[in-house]
Amino acid sequence: MNLLILEDGDFIAADRVLLSGRRLKHLHEVHRAETGDSLRVGRLNGLMGSGQLLRLDAQEAELSVQLDQPPPEKLPLTLLLALPRPKMLRRVLQTVSSMGVSRLVLLNSYRVEKSFWQTPFLEPAAIREQLILGLEQARDTVLPDVTIEKRFKPFVEDQLPGIAAGTLGLVGHPGDYPACPRAVEQPVTLAIGPEGGWIPYEVEKLNEAGLQPVQLGARILRVETAVTALLARLF
Amino acid sequence: MNLLILEDGDFIAADRVLLSGRRLKHLHEVHRAETGDSLRVGRLNGLMGSGQLLRLDAQEAELSVQLDQPPPEKLPLTLLLALPRPKMLRRVLQTVSSMGVSRLVLLNSYRVEKSFWQTPFLEPAAIREQLILGLEQARDTVLPDVTIEKRFKPFVEDQLPGIAAGTLGLVGHPGDYPACPRAVEQPVTLAIGPEGGWIPYEVEKLNEAGLQPVQLGARILRVETAVTALLARLF
């Protein structure tokens, strides 16, 4: 935890918060914090700054906070991601949040196993938990906007053309395609497939919606690694 | 497993292998393979090609193999990595292997907890296992060369100048440094610090050995994510 994230419900005054639960445990066990210590804090979807520990015991911690710095800029990116397997989903959500993605769409694909849609990790509170872990890691406060689209065709036909309009639209796909561009200057809409890749019909539909296939070389990367590699190359 | 890796001990003739254990289990449970199926195979540190399943039962699988394709090129990179915590180490080894790093040095640093050096995941067989998982994922056959340096100063003073000579030497370090370069054309020696970063003395010593500090922006990434992001940007 490189940033202690404060939520609206933590505030007992404009510059005073009370913490318990996971964050209190982390202060005790990892930070080994003591009264008087100063910590980096940030208000969820708001400013960052510093907090001073006024009081810390087994039940709660009280901090006085000063919030005066803006969070880092987000990447101007809408990421469409074929739903990964549940264990990978949790890590990918953290990565997406850490790297500053603005908007994530978890999308169905032919090669997404139907059982993946049953995971409790897709519940809003579970998604939010992983996103916050990513923000704490990266020192950011702004949650990415995450939506779930269980039907590929209506999403790609009806919504994607509007999302992709005015952006650089790309589909990560192995094969004889141009290499993924580097250091782009415009907003991007990027689609990354499931293990085993998109099927040709899906590549065609994504293409019709304005996304051009690009590749990253012969190596097949895990979804989490591919997301990081494509984002690091694009921005 | 996108490539079935064959080891010398598997060969019962120049074009014939017998498999058991983990790979047999994978053929049964994940590939749901049957006699006659064709699979992508590669000989460890050798060529890749295809294998045909001649026989498959609960005890073993026999394949006839044809090996005629070179593995993908390695990145011309020596990566010095402050030893990560054991759980992260396993994933980082897979990532390093998947991404095609030629040479990895696991190095001590002031902020590496001493207990990390006690992990069984540092034993040669455990390291090799993770590297092979990475090769299977990426479709590569060539193991990276991994060495372990438990003493920072003698390694950085005595060996690193020779390793870094004739390469672009870089230290990933947050702060007011130039941005990490993109799409470089020469071999690279890159040092990535522990959680919490290198201490100033270490940055100075790495610098004296020929490595210049570069940064990746304000966001603090987990070690595994930072490795992937730096490599994707550099190559």
From TrEMBL, chains A, B:
CDD domains: RsmE-like. One of its GO terms (biological process) is rRNA base methylation. Keywords: Cytoplasm, Methyltransferase, rRNA processing, S-adenosyl-L-methionine, Transferase. It is found in: Cytoplasm. The keyword Plastid does not apply. Residues 72-234 form the Ribosomal RNA small subunit methyltransferase E methyltransferase domain. One of its GO terms (cellular component) is cytoplasm. Its EC number is 2.1.1.193. The keyword Cell membrane does not apply. It comes from the Bacteria. GO terms for molecular function: rRNA (uridine-N3-)-methyltransferase activity. Signal peptide: none annotated. It catalyses: uridine(1498) in 16S rRNA + S-adenosyl-L-methionine = N(3)-methyluridine(1498) in 16S rRNA + S-adenosyl-L-homocysteine + H(+). NCBIfam families: PRK11713.5-4, RsmE family RNA methyltransferase. PANTHER family: 16S RRNA (URACIL(1498)-N(3))-METHYLTRANSFERASE, RIBOSOMAL RNA SMALL SUBUNIT METHYLTRANSFERASE E. Specifically methylates the N3 position of the uracil ring of uridine 1498 (m3U1498) in 16S rRNA. Acts on the fully assembled 30S ribosomal subunit. Belongs to the RNA methyltransferase RsmE family. This is Ribosomal RNA small subunit methyltransferase E. It comes from Pseudomonas anguilliseptica.
